[in-house]
């Protein structure tokens, strides 16, 4: 019983690995656009860097945040979001794909549908963000063994959380009948993750730690690098795990209500 | 070929409803209503009906994509949506508007990926690809990126892709949509060939009556979510596909004489529409008469629309 | 003014009004962004003894409400869409029409921006009134209204000019990202230009980006500087000319090279 499940898991991994290789091959099939897009993302990130430098230059330290920590936040954000949107590109599109009936191809194959869909497409553009984030951390994050370790684990947890959140909001589309929940979730969390959660008041701050966990995506990991705290670290990992589990659950349950584009569900 | 001797597809009382619209405008749509039929291994079945009849919904339930609302479905002894992953190893699916192949890659690269997913060893996969290349006459296509192939060529590669793991049943949903006449005929011939040489059961949905004539031996007609006809194609041909329509553009008004085997459906000063019962009179004959005696500006011969065929089946109003 | 201008503007506006849910979504995000950014700055101002670069919390809130409103009202995917249209050949077919391609597009996009500007303005005013109270200067706020319109027009004109680059570059994305970031910083969208170090500030006031967000924001924040409207008009003329000639050049290239 257990060995059969184990064998199946091994087969799944091989299938998923093959899918990833295919996704990578597809993404480099068009090299001309690749570097232009990577450059575009780096310009985008440099803009935010300029903003934070100018902001804290003018304003000084506020609520424990200064220019250096803001750059840590940016580094974490760029790396984490870059990883999720770059390597699991379909995560933000799950809602739309479900509404448009694009899950059929995945369901026609003997693979776990969510994993397959997530690795099915790679977006080179966002890998520019990853590069930027790592370089930014290396240059301004005062990396030492400890800080690098926290950065790596923090980014991993942040990425997991972001991935889970995107899949959950996208999968809500199965239940409400249209694909816009995914876009809403995507835009909301990416918008709010730009800012340190400590700058917001009570009720907003609560939202940022729960329903739209932008604080855990950026502010918490960034703070942990400067001021490590076991309780906060544990919370971060717990949040990440929760959203990943919720992602799998929401998607699997939602799949039962999949209509494969058979019906126009929009008003 | 693994034929366990049991029925390939068994459907009993299948119903599928969708809930659509938002809040107050919420409606329930019964896409498929209490459908029952069964398919033996090795059969070639066409499942046809007009748009919105429930064909795509049915085939998606059979392939495990959609969950049935009620009723029993067994494909190769498995319940499609529950045992989806086990089932997909034994069936192939080709949906006209959903590609299985990776757009930027060559078919060959896609096959390698599919082989890994279906646990086919490298050497074995290569052999199968070569076989399929010959069977489908597509060898020269496999090395070119999909985006550079015409639709007809792409469909042949799609067919190869879904046959790679030697499925027992091949489900096709509107596979010939968008193909030109020649490509359609070629595709249909390939399906028949697959059925002959490999014993693959073919289950095909379409709203093109010609798919019925050239591929299927049995036809199931659905309309408004229910089956209204289930019989051999030979029977259908005898009773219904015998009609052809002739549409005539007239350069001046003319009276229409009565012609044997011909029914006048419409007649204005500038056009006429005739139905020819080809069992009683050949189209060629009728054309000869028309072109000789009428002031014909324009003429075309068409198949009656499927809606008409279906309406005729039970003499039901359209 | 040729008749097609009015028609194009009305068509654009009608198209946006026909999709109220999209409009609502846009307002929702406007409020989300503005809420976040004003929160950020208000906390910063508090910690700095009440003013930053000459703005107090109230002025800053009004500033940001209008700068964000002006920016978001102008549909930000235009450059990508124009790029897609160029690549897809839609532009080529537009060139067959008797009205100038750029003019019609600009007028239509302005029409689309109008309802969004109005709605953002309304939402922004409400947000400010609820969080910080009355505007620092009513005259400033009134002047800000035409400034918003001009800001939208300048932004659109520049975008079309930049988008015309896709006739040559075939990739709109890079230009769009760069353009967006230039507005962020030199347009004074997320920070008032007074926050920039003096040398950067001098550069910024000489660039067109400040017309697209800074001017209406500055006026609404209580600095009644009506000459800014003239600056907008001047830049509008320049940017419109730039867009027209860039598109004309692009059209020539299309005809030579093919769609």
Note down, in words, how this protein is organized:
- The complex is a heterotrimer of chains A (267), B (318) and C (259).
- Chain A has 12 helices and no strands.
- Chain A has helices spanning 2-27, 31-59, 67-87, 94-100, 104-107, 113-119, 124-140, 145-176, 180-192, 202-209, 214-226, 230-255.
- The model of chain A has no long low-confidence stretch (mean pLDDT 88).
- Chain B has 2 domains: 9-238, P-loop containing nucleotide triphosphate hydrolases (Rossmann fold); 242-302, Alpha-Beta Plaits.
- Helices cover 32% and strands 29% of the residues of chain B.
- Chain B has helices at 55-62, 84-88, 107-117, 122-135, 151-163, 181-198, 209-215, 233-239, 283-293, 306-313; strands spanning 9-20, 27-39, 44-48, 70-75, 91-95, 169-173, 201-206, 218-223, 226-232, 243-250, 262-267, 271-277, 296-302.
- In chain B, the strands form 3 sheets. Chain B has a 6-stranded mixed beta sheet, sandwiched between helices.
- In chain B, a hairpin with a 6-residue loop joins β1 (9-20) and β2 (27-39).
- Chain B is globular.
- In chain C, a hairpin with a 2-residue loop joins β1 (51-52) and β2.
- Chains in contact: A-B, A-C.
């Amino acid at each position: 019983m257990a060995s059969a499940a184990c064998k199946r898991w091994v087969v799944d991994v091989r299938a998923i690995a093959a899918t990833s290789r295919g996704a990578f091959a597809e993404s480099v099939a068009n090299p001309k656009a690749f570097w232009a897009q990577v450059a575009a993302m780096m310009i985008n990130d440099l803009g935010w860097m300029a903003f934070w430098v100018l902001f804290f230059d003018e304003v000084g330290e506020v609520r424990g945040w200064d220019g250096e920590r803001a750059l840590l936040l940016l580094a974490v954000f760029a790396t984490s979001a870059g990883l999720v949107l770059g390597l699991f590109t379909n995560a933000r599109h799950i809602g739309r794909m479900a509404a448009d009936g694009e899950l059929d191809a995945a369901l026609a194959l003997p693979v776990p549908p969510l994993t397959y869909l997530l690795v099915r497409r790679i977006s080179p553009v966002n890998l520019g963000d990853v590069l930027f984030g790592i370089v930014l951390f290396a240059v301004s994050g005062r990396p030492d063994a400890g800080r690098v370790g926290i950065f790596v684990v923090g980014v991993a947890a942040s990425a997991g959380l972001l991935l889970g959140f995107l899949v959950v909001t996208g999968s809500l589309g199965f239940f409400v009948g249209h694909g816009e929940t995914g876009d809403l979730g995507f835009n909301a969390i990416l918008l709010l993750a730009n800012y340190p959660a400590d700058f917001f008041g009570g009720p907003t701050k609560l939202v940022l730690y729960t329903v739209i966990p932008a604080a855990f995506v950026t502010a918490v990991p960034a703070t942990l690098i400067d001021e490590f705290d076991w309780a906060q670290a544990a919370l971060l990992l717990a949040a990440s795990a929760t959203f990943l589990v919720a992602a799998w659950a929401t998607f699997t349950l939602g799949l039962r209500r999949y209509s494969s584009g058979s019906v126009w569900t929009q008003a | 070929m693994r034929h366990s001797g049991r029925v390939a597809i068994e459907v009993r009382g299948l119903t599928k409803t969708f809930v659509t619209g938002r809040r107050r405008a919420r409606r329930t749509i019964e896409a498929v209503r209490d459908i029952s039929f069964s398919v033996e291994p090795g059969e070639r079945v066409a499942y046809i009906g007009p748009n919105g009849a429930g064909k795509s919904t049915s085939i998606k339930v059979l392939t495990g994509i959609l969950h049935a609302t009620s009723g029993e479905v067994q494909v190769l002894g498995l319940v499609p949506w529950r045992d989806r992953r086990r089932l997909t190893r034994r069936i192939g699916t080709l949906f006209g508007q959903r590609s299985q192949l990776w757009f930027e890659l060559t078919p060959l690269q896609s096959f390698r990926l599919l082989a890994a997913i279906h646990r086919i060893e490298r050497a074995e996969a290569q052999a199968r690809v070569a076989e399929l290349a010959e069977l489908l006459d597509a060898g020269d296509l496999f090395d070119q990126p999909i985006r550079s192939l015409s639709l007809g060529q792409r469909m042949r590669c799609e067919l190869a892709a879904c046959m790679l793991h030697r499925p027992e049943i091949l489900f096709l949903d509107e596979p010939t949509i968008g193909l030109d006449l020649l490509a359609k005929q070629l595709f249909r011939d390939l399906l028949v060939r697959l059925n002959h040489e490999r014993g693959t059961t073919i289950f095909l949905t379409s709203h093109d009556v010609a798919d019925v004539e050239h591929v299927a031996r049995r036809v199931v007609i659905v309309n408004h979510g229910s089956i209204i006809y289930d019989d051999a194609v030979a029977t259908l041909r005898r009773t219904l596909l015998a009609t052809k329509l002739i549409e005539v553009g007239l350069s001046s008004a003319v009276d229409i004489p009565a012609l044997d085997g011909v029914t006048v459906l419409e007649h204005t000063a500038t056009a006429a529409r005739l139905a020819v019962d080809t069992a009683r009179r050949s189209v060629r004959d009728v054309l000869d008469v028309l072109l000789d005696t009428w002031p014909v500006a324009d003429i075309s011969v068409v198949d009656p629309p499927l809606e008409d065929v279906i309406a005729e089946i039970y003499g039901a109003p359209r | 003014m040729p008749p097609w201008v009015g028609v194009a503007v009305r068509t654009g506006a009608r198209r946006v009004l026909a999709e109220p849910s999209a409009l609502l979504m846009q307002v929702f995000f406007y409020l989300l962004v503005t809420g976040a950014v004003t929160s950020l700055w208000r906390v910063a101002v508090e910690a700095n003894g009440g003013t930053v670069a000459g703005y107090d919390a109230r002025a800053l809130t009004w500033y940001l409400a209008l700068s964000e409103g002006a920016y978001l009202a102008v549909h930000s995917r235009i450059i990508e869409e124009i790029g897609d249209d160029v690549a897809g050949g839609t532009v080529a077919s537009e060139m067959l029409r008797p009205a100038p391609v750029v003019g019609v597009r600009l007028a239509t996009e302005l029409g689309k921006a109008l309802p969004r500007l109005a709605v953002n303005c309304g939402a922004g005013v409400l947000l400010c009134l609820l969080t910080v109270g009355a505007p620092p200067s009513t005259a400033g706020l009134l002047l800000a209204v035409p400034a918003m319109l001009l800001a939208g027009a300048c932004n659109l004109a520049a975008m079309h000019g930049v988008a015309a680059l896709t006739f040559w570059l075939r990739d709109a994305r890079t230009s769009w990202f760069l353009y967006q970031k230039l507005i962020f910083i030199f347009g004074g969208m997320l920070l008032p230009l007074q926050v920039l170090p003096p040398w950067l500030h001098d550069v910024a006031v000489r660039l067109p980006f400040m017309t697209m967000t800074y001017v209406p924001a500055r006026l609404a924040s209580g600095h009644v500087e009506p000459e800014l409207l003239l600056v907008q008009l001047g830049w509008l003329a320049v940017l419109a000319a730039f867009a027209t000639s860039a598109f004309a050049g692009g059209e020539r290239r299309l005809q030579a090279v093919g769609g």
